[in-house]
Design goal:
GO molecular function (chains A, B): ATP binding; phosphoribosylaminoimidazolesuccinocarboxamide synthase activity
Strand content of chain A: 35-45%
Number of helices of chain A: 5
InterPro entries (chains A, B): SAICAR_synt/ADE2_N, SAICAR_synthetase
CATH architecture of the largest domain in chain A: 2-Layer Sandwich
Structural class of chain A: alpha+beta
Oligomer: homodimer
Distance between the termini of chain A: 30 Å
Order of helices and strands of chain A: EEEEEEHEEEEHEEHHEEEEH
Largest interface: A-B, 28 and 28 residues
Enzyme class (chains A, B): ligase
Pfam families (chains A, B): SAICAR_synt
CATH class of the largest domain in chain A: Alpha Beta
Pathway (chains A, B): Purine metabolism; IMP biosynthesis via de novo pathway; 5-amino-1-(5-phospho-D-ribosyl)imidazole-4-carboxamide from 5-amino-1-(5-phospho-D-ribosyl)imidazole-4-carboxylate: step 1/2
Shape of chain A: globular
Helix content of chain A: 25-40%
Number of domains of chain A: 2
Radius of gyration of chain A: 17 Å
Chain lengths: 228, 228
């Protein structure tokens, strides 16, 4: 690869700056979880599994290319599977990182929060919510009005990101459905490259919950089913 | 008082049904807090203080009458200070109780959630948010879209309650300001009486944070300053 400078060491990826100004994401074999069990919703590194980085890269590239083909703007430039790297456009994130979650069914933290009002697994009509990346505060939920008063997003930006998220989720859910799987929820991230809003980060087993015939697909098994 | 049937035993009030169909709120001398210290944001009963019930009733009546005079619809009918009771219109709450919070400054749980993005005590432009009354889940925040997908409020109802909350908060903040005090935040509750949206519950020291010359006014001292 080009001469690259380490910019940020993440839990599952390192980020480098390339000489052309692009970023290089190096996918690691570390996955989040608790006590050795993979849990995409967890905030800690739970274990390391040989080959996971490449699998997540391959899945990300697959979805980024599919989304680009559908007219969605993403940060994806090119990938190198052998090196487990993805070259992307540099982007400015919102605050210290804003996660945009689209839920098609009530599981995970949504069900933990609102279990008084909904059955686990009940359908949600592409419900979108945003949380701050903040491990110390357990990724707090933030409303549209909250993002506005905190100066993170304008109301208009919130609405655009919400609609884009629903479009993206629809495309990914549609692809999984063709392969006999159902997307329950997905976590996306957006940023600005110059004045353009882009889908950034990765799109892989660690960012989504997928079920098949009502049974949860362990993230480590998703890749095999997707590329069967 | 009329023949009354106990409907609900609350932390700081008991609710009875009267023969005329109205509810009777009996204010108790118990206040929420932790380890013997009064904290309006706490979910547990911390201590019992002689006369607190009557003081909170008097303050509630004062604000309900002021709000009614300004055209706000409330559940208030009449009060009996000696008995520490308030007669109100019966109202159907949202879900198992929805708290509507209006914040003029970033303190309390808002600052705890978003401390990465705002200074403690910074001004907020009448920011409104809603949380479910759910002690076990620590009163979870819920967005406009969340309330819609859970079937608790329509988007239109959310917008009406938000605007009504800002109006009410403005009136209460204005009254406190005339008396040299500043309202930082307030927690309201709404319900339907037949088809009419009403401000319900109480409006007292336990529902708001008030400061004077930058110093927090202990809830137990608010009444004396308000009626000085």
């Amino acid at each position: 690869m080009d001469k690259a400078t380490l910019l940020y060491e993440g839990k599952t990826k390192n980020v480098y700056v390339l000489e052309n100004g692009h970023y290089l994401l190096k996918f690691k074999d570390d996955v989040t979880g608790e006590k050795g069990v993979f849990d995409p919703g967890a905030n800690n590194i739970g274990l390391s599994i040989e080959g996971v980085g490449r699998k997540n890269l391959r899945m990300s590239v697959f979805f980024f290319e599919k989304l680009e083909a559908a007219g969605i703007k993403t940060h994806f430039v090119r990938s190198d599977l052998d090196e487990a790297t993805m070259e992307v456009l540099p982007a400015k994130v919102f605050g210290r990182g804003l996660e945009v979650i689209c839920r098609r069914r009530a599981v995970g933290s949504f069900f933990r929060r609102y279990g008084d009002y909904i059955e686990e697994g009940a359908s949600l009509p592409l419900y979108v919510e945003m949380t701050f990346k903040d491990d110390d505060r357990d990724d707090p939920l933030v409303t549209r009005d909250g993002l506005v008063v905190l100066g993170i997003l304008s109301g208009r930006e919130y609405d655009v990101i919400k609609e884009e998220t629903r479009k993206i989720t629809g495309i990914i859910a549609g692809d999984l459905l063709e392969k006999g799987m159902e997307l329950y929820d997905i976590k996306l991230e957006f940023g600005y490259h110059r004045d353009e809003l882009l889908l950034i980060d990765e799109i892989s087993s660690g960012n989504m919950r997928v079920y098949k015939e009502g049974k949860y697909i362990e993230p480590l098994n998703l890749s095999a089913l997707l590329f069967a």
